[in-house]
Amino acid sequence: MSKLTIGLFGFGCVGQGFYEILNNENNPLFEIKKIVVKNEEKERSAPKELFSTNAEDIFNDAEINLIVELIDDAETAFQIVRRSLARAIPVISANKKMIATHLEELFELQERFNTPLLYEGAVCGSIPILQTLENYYQNDKVNEIRGIFNGSSNYVLSKILNENLSYEAALTQAQELGFAETDPTLDVGGYDPSYKLAILIKHVFGVSIDPNKITRLGIDQLSSTIYDYAQARNLKVKLIASAKVSHGQISASVIPHLVSKEDEEFTIENEFNSVAIATEYTGKQLLVGKGAGKYPTGLAVYNDLKNLLKGFKYKNKESLVALNDEPITVFIKYEQSGFIIKFFDQIKEHNLTKGESYIIGEIAPSKLRTLKGFNDLSVAVFTENAIKKAQLSTSYSYAV
Amino acid sequence: MSKLTIGLFGFGCVGQGFYEILNNENNPLFEIKKIVVKNEEKERSAPKELFSTNAEDIFNDAEINLIVELIDDAETAFQIVRRSLARAIPVISANKKMIATHLEELFELQERFNTPLLYEGAVCGSIPILQTLENYYQNDKVNEIRGIFNGSSNYVLSKILNENLSYEAALTQAQELGFAETDPTLDVGGYDPSYKLAILIKHVFGVSIDPNKITRLGIDQLSSTIYDYAQARNLKVKLIASAKVSHGQISASVIPHLVSKEDEEFTIENEFNSVAIATEYTGKQLLVGKGAGKYPTGLAVYNDLKNLLKGFKYKNKESLVALNDEPITVFIKYEQSGFIIKFFDQIKEHNLTKGESYIIGEIAPSKLRTLKGFNDLSVAVFTENAIKKAQLSTSYSYAV
Hints:
The structure is a homodimer.
Chain A: E1 4-9, H1 13-25, E2 30-36, E3 51-52, H2 56-59, E4 66-69, H3 74-86, E5 91-93, H4 96-101, H5 103-112, E6 117-118, H6 129-136, E7 142-148, H7 151-163, H8 167-176, H9 185-188, H10 191-205, E8 215-216, H11 224-232, E9 236-246, E10 249-259, E11 272-279, E12 283-290, H12 294-309, E13 322-323, E14 328-334, E15 344-351, E16 358-363, H13 365-371, E17 377-382, H14 384-389, E18 398-399
Parallel strand pairs in A: 1-2, 1-4, 2-3, 4-5, 5-6, 8-10, 10-13, 10-17
Antiparallel strand pairs in A: 7-9, 7-11, 9-10, 11-12, 14-16, 14-17, 15-16, 15-18
Helix pairs in contact in A: 1-12, 3-5, 7-8
């Protein structure tokens, strides 16, 4: 492939960023021939003749030899990708939900039709994490990957903890700045980071995991009792996605964590994302950058073009690890549901002050998933460092 | 090139790490055929028949199609690299001093003989910074690059500031743990990070700079007055290498900095390194990892093998920026040299307490280089965040 003639689906925030970078760089090897959008009426920042609302204008054009898919709707996106790969046309996408929920099929299609699909822009925007994993850690054993994978939630938590904004005010601000979706559930409910985590788990550990199987709690269920607890102990609250393998079992979760200054995530503020990797040969590595946005994600898509020209494709790693259910130390604030005590393996602290009642203790992730049905709870996990910092009073510790 | 038959020069810490990783990975495409060392007598952790003390055993072997150079001595290393490239044999090296002091010649040799030289292991050990810059930021404008490029100095500073160890005790500990050289001047004098910075400046800005032209102050000139000042204001002291371009001029320095918790370097402790990049499209990016050591650097060398097979080579960027001499805000502790006041453009604070006298003010980097002749001074620069945090009393501010 010597020149890429591109059919682009979608012209939202990332699509426009990608288009502008392509124009600025002015590389004779890349040309956008057609842009298919839903709404023909909208004012566009590109020549009118490029646009169409008919997908066939891309699929019927024999010159188009690359499809860049940057639309919102995951199911339509999957149809586009499947159809392209089946015609041996490579695809670049940034649709995390589509990729996370079809990982196995997508690898299968790539192999069957010997045609690559790249999606650096789908995971943590400007952080070149997939490329780094494939190029650099392919010969190193990764034991753990974790980080802040959702810029909107992190922005909200920064504003609440550092500037004492209310949850609602912080979220409105994030939406006004374009960090959060109009329907923010994907962000604050922890869905978006669970998609990114599922993609990374496949690339790091070779395991395809249904994103719905990941223990997932968002920042929408947190309460001021948790913030007060954290602030009194110089801890912060961060929404952390993590996956870890030990003894052939994988633990994967997206949960708000109480973090201490020794944790890498402590200083990651506002719309920034982080990815920490623990490997056999190199120890701990950390990558930090903007997790979303027009140009950060647009550049990731643009770099996929260049990688495609070089013949780069993702390896289909396979491995045999099972889901793990080892207990984790959590802080659970409750209103009426005092009976949750029976779900714990061990209690470390129990505060009974009316309106601020909480339990700190060890609980199995599967039981935590059961508890999600009770909507008067708010939950955060302690990092190892936060456990030390909070000096959890082991004297009160008792088995349940 | 389908299989790499390797001639290895040097079998020290990194050489052994590289050898072990190669053996563990057991890739049929890579084979070490000969290892040339200085001392034949030493006990080795590899089969005796691999070793020789005669460089010609590598150069006369027609099967050897790659030279990996991992020796200490920069001048001998340069002879080896020049000879290899002239015979169109690609080279991988991790010798920062050799590379930094011969950058132009090395690019010229690579072009003349159309033969690549790779050296990811020379810059910040396990952090894949050169690969990331070449693959990911090639189409993005980098405005600044800075970080902690010397693990030994950072280890010493961590121990002094966090555990109140003396400079001597901390340095001895670093040496015992293998983080520092037996002659630690290269580390604590700031030479080692100045070589890495010169290499990065070439790769980022296209400018070949003589490492001796970089304003360079190490941690060996710091005094407890600076540590006390920092601790009283919740600041830390970090040895920071930085290069920044503005208005077509480049500022480059390796100097201890007073950093505040808003600075990326604040939480980088012990033997870890960091590289922060500010770019046009992505904003701020940060990479953190172990900066040195057997396996971290060994893996970087091993990854260069794989990149070589893929046809990867560094681009010879060229640009036209000049050295900049804009004033920086420094803390200078002095014993007798009160007359240094005339070197400042502006004074912000002047403490005359006997034995703890210091001046805080703005000084041009060229004047700071002049001051290095006075050995009763100790110097650290303020970051922008540290200036705010320290609330420099602008009321005392006066022009000199």
